[in-house]
Amino acid sequence: MGKIVNLDQLIRIRKRAKRDHQKVVFTNGCFDILHRGHIECLKKAKSFGDLLIVGLNSDSSVEKLKGKGRPIQPQEDRAEILASLEMVDYVCIFKEETPQKMICALIPDILVKGGDYKKKKIVGKEVVRSHGGRVFTVKEVKGESSKNIIKKILASYRKSSI
Asked: Is the entire prediction scored with pTM above 0.85?
């Protein structure tokens, strides 16, 4: 089994982790055009436990959240990029707009989101806390976002006549 898994495989991984007394950390996102802010968030998330599981929005859910023309990178590419990172143990793609179903199935010990999220609005926090888990937000890297990268690329192309 590789690092990109489906929900059934993820549930088996979670059971094994629980048996082995490993802390499971979960985070999620679109990760469309991976940037330093993503990397810092993933590194910090991994530091909270033993296994870092990343829920990845599918192409259809990214389009619903971010609008037409997104994602820039297809879900398979985004999953492979995330899976190639040392701090990421597993990646699981979800089709829904939120990772609620995945979080309910997984019951991670720790749920982590970027600092751009308000704790009271983090999806799945009630489930995690009701099972004795913890919820953290990590400081965001100022100015780092996929949207800013896209704007910079578009501005660069507008200036040149490529």
From this structure: yes
